[in-house]
């Protein structure tokens, strides 16, 4: 416990002899009782002392010129800090009952008459000094207790934060575990279908119709796998800010309308009542990413709305925003889920069959893409079984429609000779067969060095080069082909599983003409080859 200040006693008397006698008498016991003695010659002097110090007791002479003892006592007790200081009046005259009453009304606790009897003074002073020391101890203990309480409160708050952070981490880990389990399920389903279809094609006696159906299954499930990989990559890119938007003026209503037409054409919305009310509204956006937003919001509505349900799609302008609203009358969302519906690895439970598949990360991607466009997306639901509404807001722009430029005349040319450099044996064989089926003359190489030799020997018009090659990678292959006068004019298309803006930059810096991300759609590949083909074709 810290050392306490000694209690102080103030003696107030205008008579110098009386003041000296009292202070000297009190000084005899000061060391023993551990207190200090201060003196004042007038009421004004006493008030100055009270402003500077706290006192255990004040010995106050009643009869003083100017401000007497009663007035001095009233002034001392009028101040909040000194209101509780006990005052013992000292007088040489015998006080009557009225004087005593007046003294007590001004805060006196006792009377002493001169000449003062030392033993009585000592007894009275000891009580007040002991009381002052005890009060100071209590104040000190109260301060310590308050400090300990504050420390305990802070520790408790830290503990509660740690508990909440641990619970949050556990929830996220649990959600990630569920997500990985779901990812495994979503990957195994199409892989199983592809494996079964491939085995069916190889069975003796299988009909031509069965082979065709198996091929369609392989194609459809391969596209499904590609969409799963794209979702994962897009979310990763969006969260890390590595998506670059190709923003152009576009009509959001027209884009949403085209998306709805695709859903109708593919039969994905056949079992639902689709109501649309699309008012024009122009935004500066990336058409591919905005279509991705619309598709994910529609997929979410379809997934959590039973067959026969109603889905309303509206677009309109509101102040400086273009708004897209998708409302359904499906399973809705609980109040607990609603604040977290756009979080990564969070997915609401549904009693519906998950036949449409998906990873449940679409809404997280929607929010990030909306933010990259300078917009926002909100979710609202009145509760379970009461449907949901998702509202996208994008900054509106002023736009005047300009006449479209006349299409460039299509150049007819023969089929170019192709070189395919790919280290995956199955992938190389399948693509070579596919290109051969489309009438192309194709040479293949299994690594970068073999590819350079084949290019020098075969002199192709166009080379399809995988980036992740053993020995030397696709970037180095392109650089060496461009550095050789015999091969520098070969058109180069990069085939890679890397689709970030940084990857596109590296591809172009290495000397490629085009950049295609695996898995490559056959029509996209044919267009790329057609656009890159040299004219005239080698004889």
UniProtKB/TrEMBL annotation:
It catalyses: ATP + protein L-histidine = ADP + protein N-phospho-L-histidine. InterPro entries: CheY-like_superfamily, HATPase_C_sf, HATPase_dom, His_kinase_dom, HisK_dim/P_dom, HisK_dim/P_sf, Sig_transdc_His_kin-like_C, Sig_transdc_resp-reg_receiver. Keywords: Coiled coil, Kinase, Phosphoprotein, Transferase. Residues 128-172 form a coiled coil. It comes from Duganella callida. This is histidine kinase. GO terms for cellular component: plasma membrane. Its EC number is 2.7.13.3. Residues 8-129, 417-533 form the Response regulatory domain.
């Amino acid at each position: 416990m810290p050392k306490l200040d000694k209690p102080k006693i103030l003696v107030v008397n205008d008579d110098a002899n009386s003041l000296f006698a009292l202070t000297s008498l009190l000084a005899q016991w000061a060391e023993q009782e551990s207190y200090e003695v201060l003196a004042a010659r007038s009421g004004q002097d006493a008030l100055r002392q009270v402003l500077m110090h706290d006192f255990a007791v004040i010995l106050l002479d009643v009869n003083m010129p100017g401000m007497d003892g009663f007035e001095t006592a009233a002034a001392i007790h009028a101040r909040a800090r000194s209101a509780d200081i006990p005052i013992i009046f000292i007088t040489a005259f015998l006080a009557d009952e009225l004087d005593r009453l007046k003294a007590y009304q001004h805060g006196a606790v006792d009377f002493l008459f001169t000449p003062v009897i030392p033993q009585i003074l000592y007894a009275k002073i000891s009580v007040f000094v002991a009381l002052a020391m005890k009060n100071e101890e209590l104040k000190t203990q109260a301060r310590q207790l308050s400090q300990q309480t504050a420390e305990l409160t802070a520790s408790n708050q830290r503990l509660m934060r740690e508990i909440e952070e641990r619970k949050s981490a556990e929830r996220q880990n649990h959600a990630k575990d569920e997500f990985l389990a779901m990812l495994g399920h979503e990957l195994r389903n199409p892989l199983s279908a592809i494996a079964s279809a491939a085995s069916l094609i190889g069975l003796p006696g299988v009909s031509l119709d069965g082979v065709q159906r198996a091929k369609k299954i392989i194609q459809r499930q391969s596209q499904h796998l590609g969409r799963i990989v794209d979702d994962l990559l897009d979310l990763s890119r969006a969260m890390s800010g590595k998506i670059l938007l190709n923003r152009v003026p576009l009509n959001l209503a027209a884009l949403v309308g085209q998306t709805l037409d695709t859903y109708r054409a593919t039969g994905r919305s056949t079992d639902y009542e689709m109501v649309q009310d699309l008012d024009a509204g122009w935004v500066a956006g990336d058409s591919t990413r905005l279509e991705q937003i619309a598709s994910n919001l529609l997929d979410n509505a379809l997934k959590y709305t039973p067959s026969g349900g109603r889905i309303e799609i509206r677009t309109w302008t509101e102040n400086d925003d273009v708004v897209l609203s998708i409302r359904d009358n499906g399973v809705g969302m609980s109040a607990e889920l609603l604040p977290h519906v756009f979080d990564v690895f969070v997915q609401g439970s549904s009693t519906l069959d998950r036949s449409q598949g998906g990873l449940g990360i679409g809404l997280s991607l929607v929010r990030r893409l909306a933010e990259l466009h300078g917009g926002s997306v909100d979710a609202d639901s009145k509760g379970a079984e009461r449907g949901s509404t998702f509202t996208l807001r994008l900054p509106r722009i002023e736009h005047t429609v300009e006449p479209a430029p006349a299409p460039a005349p299509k150049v007819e040319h023969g089929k170019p000779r192709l070189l395919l450099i790919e280290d995956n044996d199955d992938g190389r064989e399948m693509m070579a067969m596919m290109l051969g089926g489309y009438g192309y003359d194709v040479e293949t190489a299994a690594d970068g060095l073999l590819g350079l030799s084949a290019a020098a020997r075969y002199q192709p018009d166009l080379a399809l080069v995988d980036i992740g090659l053993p020995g030397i990678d696709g970037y180095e292959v392109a650089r060496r082909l461009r550095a050789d006068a015999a091969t520098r004019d070969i058109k180069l298309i990069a085939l890679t599983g890397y689709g970030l803006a940084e990857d596109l930059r590296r591809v172009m810096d290495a000397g490629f003409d085009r950049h295609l991300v695996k898995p490559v759609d056959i029509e996209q590949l044919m267009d790329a080859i057609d656009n890159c083909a040299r004219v005239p074709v080698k004889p």
